[in-house]
Specification:
Elements: H1 3-11, E1 63-64, E2 71-72, E3 80-84, H2 85-90, E4 106-109, E5 118-121, E6 138-142, E7 145-146, E8 160-167, E9 181-187, E10 196-204, E11 208-220, E12 224-235, E13 240-241, E14 252-263, E15 270-284, E16 302-303, E17 310-327, E18 330-348, E19 358-377, E20 381-401, H3 403-406, E21 412-434, E22 439-463, E23 471-477, E24 486-487, E25 494-512, E26 518-528, E27 531-532, E28 545-546, E29 549-562, E30 567-587, E31 591-614, E32 617-632, E33 634-635, E34 638-639, E35 651-664, E36 667-678, E37 681-682, E38 702-703, E39 706-717, E40 720-727, E41 735-739, E42 750-753, E43 758-766
Length: 767
C-alpha cells in the first residue's frame, strides 16, 4: 500500500458518510389468539370482494381487536383504520410500504424501495434516523406480537384477515415504543370447519411474475385444522440502469411461506395456535439520484450506476398462542414468539459509475417475546391485564467505502462492528367501566422497565478496494481523539449501558347516542425508549445513549352510521405535546450524532367516510390535516424552531369508488379506481435551511405535493376471478426519501425515486 494512499485516507476522515438503513420483505409472522370473521365491509376501505364473488353490499362492521378484545370498529374510542385482507388486494396493496394509499395521516418512505419502510403517523416517525438498530416509534405487530427489528417491517402482504392501524400513542396495550401509533397485521388461521383454499398467478410489466396460494384442511371438525400459505414475486428492475452491463435497480425476488396449526381439544375452552414462517428477499437495491454530472441526459426513472447491489434479507420464526376460557367471563391468553433474520445490503449510494460511496450493510437479528394476559367481561366492567417480556439483539458489521470521494485511485473507508441487546419488562391493565348505559369510562396504565447494552464495539479506518481485502490503518472506535489519529488496535473494544423506566397510560370517556353515534375524548401518554447511536464509527465520542421520547396526546372523535346505514363516518381531532424526538445530526468528520429534539407540537384532524350509493356503487374517502413543527431544535448551531417535522405532509387525502358493472349471485365485474394525494413534505429537520458554514443544499431534500392514481378490476365467474391492476397510473415522478450528504462532505445529496407505473393481471381459483 503506497504511502500516498495511506496519507490521503488518514487526512480524508474529515469527510462524512452517513448511513442509511433498511428492512426486508420476508414475512415474520408470529401467531395470535383466534380472530373473528372479518368478511364484513371495513370502515376505511371499500367492501371487500369474497374469494368467489364481487364486492359485497353488506352493512356489517369489521370486527377489530384494537383493545385486545373483539369489538366493532365503530364502538372503539380510538382512531383506528381497519382494512380487510381482500380489500388490500382490491386497492393493489401488496406490501406494507403501500398502506399510505388507504389510511389518512399515514406517510411511508424508505431509502430502499419496499425495504424497511419508515412509518410516519400524524408526523411522528424516525425522522432522518437511518440505522437499523433503532426502534420504530410506530409499533409494528403481527398478530399482537411486537416486531423489534425494523428489518422485519417491509413485508409482503398475503393471506391476511385484516390490517388495523391505530393512530396516536398506544401506551397501554400496545405499549412498547409506540409514540406514533401501532400497525397490527392479523393473519388467517384455520376456522376448524371444512376444507378450502385458493391459488393465484399473475404477470405484469417489468417481466414480473407473482403467485400466491393457501390451503386449509380440517382434520377433526371444530378441533384440529391446518392452513398453509405462500407468496412469490419475481421481476426485473423497475429503474433502468444505463451503465453497460449493470443491473437495473428495484427488482423483485421474494419467497415467503407460513403454516398455522390450530388445536381445540374436544371443541372445549382451550384454543392453541402454532405457527411457523420463513421468507427471503433477493431483489436489487433501490435507485439513487446522486452525483449530478452523471444524471445528464437521464430520465427520472433511470440511473447510471456501476455497482447496483442486492438486498439480501431473510426472516424466520415460530410462535404459540394459547387461549383458555376459565369461565364465561374470564379468559387467559399466552403469546410466545421466537424470531430471527438477517440482512446483507450492497448499496451503491452515489448514483454514478464512480466508487464515491459504496456501503455494505450487514446485520443479524434475534428476538424473543412473551405476553400473558387475562380478559374479564362482566356486566359493567371489562378488563384486560397482564405482563410482557421482550428481548432482542442485533449484531452489525457494516463497511463504508469512501475512498474515491477523497481522490482518484484512493480506495478505502471504515469498517464498523457492534452488538446491541435490549430487554423490556412491563405490566399493564386497562378497564372499561359503564358509568351509565351509554357512558363508558376507560382507565389504563402500563409501567415499563427498559435495559439496553451496546457491546463489542469497534471500528477502524482501512485501505482497500470495494469488496476486496482490507488493510487496517487506524482504530476509530474506541478512539476519543481526532478520527484517524489512534493507532490500530485489534483488541480495542467499546461498551455502553442504557436504562430507563416509564409510566404510560390512557384515560377516555365515550358516549353512545340512541342512534348509535359514538363520541369520545381521550388522553394518552406514549413512550419510546432511549437509544444508542448506531451511526458512530469514526469516533467513540459520537456513540451515546440519548433520552426517551414522550408524547402527551389529547384527542376527541366521533363515529357513526347514517341514512339507513348507507353512510359511515368517522372523524378525530388531536393535539400532541411531543418531546425528545430522536434525530440524526450528520456533520463532516465523518460524524453522525444521535440527539434529542427538545420540543415539538403536533395537531390536526382527520376524517373517513364510506357511502353505499346503491348495490352497485360504493364511495370511500379519507382526508387528514396535520400541523407538525419543532418548537425547540438546534442542530449544527442553527436554530430550527418552527420547521416541519420530516415526512409530515400538511394535507393527505384518499378517495375511491367500487363500481359493480354487473352481478349475478356471486359472479360479476367490479372496477375500483382510487387516488391518493400528499402535500409537500421535507426529508430533513432542516427543511430548506442550510447550516452556516456548510455546503448543505437542503432545499433539494423535499417532495412537492403529488397525487397517484390506481385502478383495479375484478371479474368473477364461478370459482375463478380475473384481476387487472395499474398502480401509479399516470407515472407520477416523486421521491420517496432524501438524506443530506452535502453537509457531510460529499458533492451531492442522496435521493431515492419512488416506483414508476406498474400494471398487470392475475387469475385466482378458489376451492
Amino acid at each position: 500500500m503506497s504511502a500516498r494512499i495511506t496519507a490521503v485516507l488518514l487526512a480524508g476522515v474529515s469527510f462524512a458518510c452517513p448511513a442509511v438503513a433498511h428492512a426486508q420483505s420476508a414475512d415474520p409472522l408470529p401467531a395470535t389468539a383466534p380472530s373473528p370473521d372479518t368478511s364484513a365491509a371495513p370502515v376505511t376501505a371499500t367492501a371487500a370482494p369474497q374469494e368467489t364473488g364481487v364486492a359485497g353490499d353488506g352493512d356489517g362492521d369489521i370486527v377489530v381487536t384494537a383493545q385486545r378484545r373483539e369489538q366493532s370498529v365503530l364502538s372503539v374510542p380510538i382512531a383506528v383504520s381497519a382494512i380487510a385482507g381482500n380489500t388490500l388486494a382490491t386497492k393493489g396493496i401488496n406490501n406494507s410500504a403501500n398502506l399510505a394509499a388507504a389510511v389518512p395521516n399515514l406517510q411511508i418512505s424508505s431509502p430502499y424501495g419496499n425495504t424497511q419502510p419508515n412509518f410516519s403517523l400524524r408526523g411522528i416517525s424516525v425522522a432522518n434516523e437511518y440505522n437499523s438498530n433503532q426502534a420504530s416509534p410506530v409499533g409494528v405487530y403481527i398478530d399482537d406480537i411486537y416486531l423489534a427489528s425494523r428489518t422485519a417491517h417491509g413485508m409482503g402482504l398475503f393471506d391476511l384477515e385484516r390490517v388495523e392501524v391505530l393512530r396516536g400513542p398506544q401506551g397501554t396495550l400496545f405499549g412498547r415504543n409506540t409514540t406514533g401509533g401501532a400497525i397490527n397485521f392479523i393473519t388467517k388461521a384455520p376456522a376448524l370447519n371444512g376444507n378450502s383454499g385458493y391459488a393465484e398467478g399473475g404477470y405484469g410489466n417489468f417481466d414480473t411474475y407473482t403467485a400466491q396460494a393457501a390451503i386449509e384442511t380440517t382434520m377433526v371438525e371444530n378441533q384440529l385444522g391446518l392452513r398453509i400459505s405462500g407468496n412469490y414475486a419475481q421481476g426485473d428492475g423497475q429503474i433502468d440502469n444505463v451503465f453497460p452491463g449493470g443491473r437495473d435497480a428495484n427488482s423483485q425476488n421474494t419467497l415467503q411461506g407460513r403454516a398455522v396449526l390450530r388445536i381445540r381439544p374436544g371443541d372445549g375452552p382451550l384454543d392453541i395456535r402454532l405457527k411457523v414462517y420463513g421468507g427471503r428477499d433477493r431483489g436489487t437495491q433501490a435507485a439513487v439520484h446522486g452525483l449530478q454530472p452523471f444524471r445528464t441526459g437521464l430520465g427520472f426513472f433511470q440511473t447510471n450506476e456501476n455497482r447496483i447491489g442486492l438486498n439480501r434479507t431473510e426472516a424466520y420464526g415460530a410462535s404459540a398462542t394459547i387461549a383458555y376460557e376459565l369461565s364465561p367471563t374470564l379468559t387467559f391468553t399466552s403469546i410466545t414468539s421466537r424470531d430471527g433474520g438477517a440482512q446483507n445490503l450492497q448499496q451503491a449510494a452515489d448514483g454514478s459509475p464512480l466508487d464515491v460511496l459504496d456501503i455494505n450493510w450487514r446485520s443479524n437479528f434475534q428476538q424473543f417475546s412473551e405476553e400473558a394476559r387475562v380478559n374479564y367481561a362482566g356486566d359493567r366492567v371489562k378488563l384486560v391485564a397482564g405482563g410482557f417480556y421482550g428481548w432482542d439483539q442485533v449484531t452489525t458489521d457494516n463497511t463504508f467505502n469512501i475512498g474515491q470521494a477523497l481522490g482518484p485511485g484512493v480506495n478505502g473507508g471504515f469498517f464498523q462492528h457492534y452488538r446491541q441487546t435490549r430487554r423490556s419488562y412491563a405490566v399493564f391493565a386497562q378497564g372499561d367501566y359503564d358509568l351509565t348505559e351509554k357512558l363508558v369510562l376507560t382507565l389504563g396504565a402500563r409501567y415499563t422497565w427498559d435495559r439496553s447494552r451496546y457491546s463489542d464495539g469497534y471500528a477502524y479506518l482501512f485501505a482497500g478496494d470495494v469488496g476486496g481485502a482490507q488493510t487496517p490503518l487506524a482504530t476509530t472506535v474506541p478512539c476519543a481523539g481526532v478520527p484517524g489519529t489512534c493507532p490500530y488496535d485489534p483488541a480495542a473494544r467499546f461498551a455502553l449501558d442504557g436504562r430507563n423506566n416509564a409510566l404510560t397510560g390512557r384515560v377516555s370517556l365515550a358516549y353512545t347516542f340512541d342512534g348509535g353515534t359514538l363520541v369520545y375524548a381521550s388522553y394518552n401518554r406514549g413512550y419510546r425508549s432511549g437509544a444508542f447511536n448506531g451511526g458512530g464509527y469514526t469516533s467513540s465520542a459520537g456513540i451515546n445513549y440519548i433520552a426517551p421520547e414522550r408524547v402527551n396526546a389529547y384527542e376527541v372523535g366521533v363515529k357513526g352510521r347514517y341514512f339507513d346505514n348507507a353512510l359511515t363516518l368517522t372523524a378525530a381531532g388531536f393535539y400532541y405535546d411531543y418531546s425528545n424526538q430522536q434525530v440524526q445530526d450528520t456533520r463532516p468528520g465523518p460524524v453522525s450524532f444521535l440527539v434529542n429534539a427538545p420540543k415539538a407540537e403536533v395537531y390536526g384532524a382527520e376524517g373517513e367516510a364510506r357511502l353505499r350509493v346503491s348495490p352497485a356503487i360504493t364511495l370511500t374517502a379519507a382526508a387528514g390535516y396535520l400541523h407538525a413543527q419543532y418548537k425547540e431544535l438546534t442542530l449544527q448551531n442553527t436554530v430550527l424552531n418552527g420547521n416541519d417535522l420530516p415526512f409530515a405532509p400538511r394535507f393527505t387525502a384518499q378517495g375511491g369508488v367500487d363500481l359493480t358493472l354487473f352481478r349475478n349471485g356471486t359472479d360479476g365485474l367490479t372496477v375500483s379506481p382510487s387516488v391518493a394525494y400528499f402535500s409537500r413534505q421535507y426529508f430533513s429537520p432542516f427543511n430548506t435551511v442550510n447550516a452556516i458554514g456548510t455546503a448543505q443544499q437542503n432545499s433539494e431534500l423535499q417532495q412537492e405535493g403529488y397525487a397517484k392514481v390506481n385502478l383495479t378490476a375484478a371479474l368473477t365467474t364461478g370459482r375463478i376471478t380475473f384481476k387487472a391492476f395499474a398502480n401509479n397510473l399516470f407515472n407520477a415522478r416523486t421521491y420517496a426519501y432524501g438524506l443530506d450528504l452535502r453537509g457531510a462532505g460529499f458533492p451531492y445529496n442522496f435521493l431515492v425515486p419512488s416506483t414508476p407505473r406498474t400494471y398487470g393481471g392475475s387469475i385466482r381459483v378458489a376451492f
